Amino acid sequence: MDFFVYGTLTDADRAAAVCSSVEFLDDAMLDGLHRVDGRYPTLAPGGSVEGRILRTDAVDALDRYEGVDRRLYVRVAVPRTDGGEVQTYVGDPDRLGIDVEWPGDGPFDERVDGYLRDADVTVEPTTES
Questions:
Q1: What is the CA radius of gyration of the chain?
Q2: How far is CA 33 from CA 26, 79, 92, 122, in A?
């Protein structure tokens, strides 16, 4: 599975420590969300952020690392401009102590999904694989 990463997992040594097998495919730009730094980095509506696309089958290991089970982050699918999709992690600003507003009502994961459906959020590879 392919992932867009924009924080500590952009470092090959960190990614290898988390995942049993990992391959970096491309540098990439995510448009429609921007990085916000706090206790841990997260994404917020609007703007763009540079990162990397990595491929791994260690989805459970990444979910544990990102705290999906503790609801620190949600994993969401984002379309690639060249076809297909990547997964990325979006941190809950309330749980991370960051002042970010996501539009809509309801639980955090539903607001993120709603924004991704309504906004033109895409990942564009910026290097050749």
A1: 14
A2: 19, 13, 14, 9
Q: Domain residue spans in the chain?
A: 2-123
* 26 torsion bin: left (phi>0), alpha (psi -120 to 50), beta (else): beta
Backbone angles phi, psi at 60, to 5 degrees: -60, -40
Amino acid at 126: T
Architecture of the 2-123 domain = Roll (3.10)
Q: What is the pLDDT of residues 58-109, one digit of tens each?
A: 999 999 999 999 999 999 999 999 999 999 999 999 999 999 999 999 999 9
Residue 101 tokens, joined: 């507003």
Read off the pLDDT of residues 117-129 as tens digits, 9 standing for 90 and up. Answer: 999 999 999 976 4
Whole-model pTM over 0.90: yes
